[in-house]
């Protein structure tokens, strides 16, 4: 079963007038993982798609949706997949790729049949991002051992973390999709601080590994005019190109960042010092 919804893009002038409910309706993506379902959100930010896939006893096939107006999901798109659950299998046009927890798979434009299934006793949970593509690149699996690993932050500022670049242009050839995973060290709560924007790319954040009954506060908006959204475990938030994307949790957690736009340079960002945020 495939469910899908649509989100319009928002400009920063209208954004500052939103109530809490309006903010959540525009940017929060909840209920990503439901047994036996594929749940997709199609966003007008770079026509980015965010989704969650939770197979049960039967494999789930990624089928096209009306917004794409294409015979197959990847006729004009590329796809990034990161498994955050138990061992699973993604089959792409007859070739199977086994993904352990926190392993990734890139699937290029033009692939026709993509299915998702469990491969062990623990439930697989496939988090996916997709962006339009103008060229076809090979399918490639990326494990954490293949990732570019960056140690970031400082205990002093409660933001010590490890960043795993998984689907990035230095590892995998892509048109515009970039994805990675960041793990907060225990006792550290801040991600992406100092905050930044990158007007050449939009972004989506997916939070997971949060302790039960804890929460994450995600900050959104222009650096001098911010708002916040509280998220629960395994929820995502869309981040416009004009917005910061930063958060703090009441316990340690991990998050997956995905982005698309006209620039593949990871370091292309405009940093805002913490004492200048408003």
Automatic annotation (TrEMBL):
GO terms for molecular function: 4-deoxy-L-threo-5-hexosulose-uronate ketol-isomerase activity; zinc ion binding. Its EC number is 5.3.1.17. The lineage of its organism: Bacteria, Pseudomonadati, Bacteroidota, Saprospiria, Saprospirales. This is 4-deoxy-L-threo-5-hexosulose-uronate ketol-isomerase. InterPro entries: KduI, KduI/IolB_isomerase, KduI_N, RmlC-like_jellyroll, RmlC_Cupin_sf. Gene3D superfamilies: Jelly Rolls (2.60.120.10), pectin degrading enzyme 5-keto 4- deoxyuronate isomerase, domain 1 (2.60.120.520). Keywords: Isomerase, Metal-binding, Zinc. Catalyzes the isomerization of 5-dehydro-4-deoxy-D-glucuronate to 3-deoxy-D-glycero-2,5-hexodiulosonate. CDD domains: cupin_KduI_C, cupin_KduI_N. HAMAP family: KduI (MF_00687). Pathway: Glycan metabolism; pectin degradation; 2-dehydro-3-deoxy-D-gluconate from pectin: step 4/5. It is an enzyme of class 5 (isomerase). SUPFAM superfamilies: RmlC-like cupins. Zn(2+) binds at residues 196, 198, 203, 245. Its cofactor is Zn(2+). Binds 1 zinc ion per subunit. Pfam families: KduI. It catalyses: 5-dehydro-4-deoxy-D-glucuronate = 3-deoxy-D-glycero-2,5-hexodiulosonate. The keyword Ribosomal protein does not apply. PANTHER family: 4-DEOXY-L-THREO-5-HEXOSULOSE-URONATE KETOL-ISOMERASE (PTHR38461). Belongs to the KduI family. GO terms for biological process: D-galacturonate catabolic process; D-glucuronate catabolic process; pectin catabolic process.
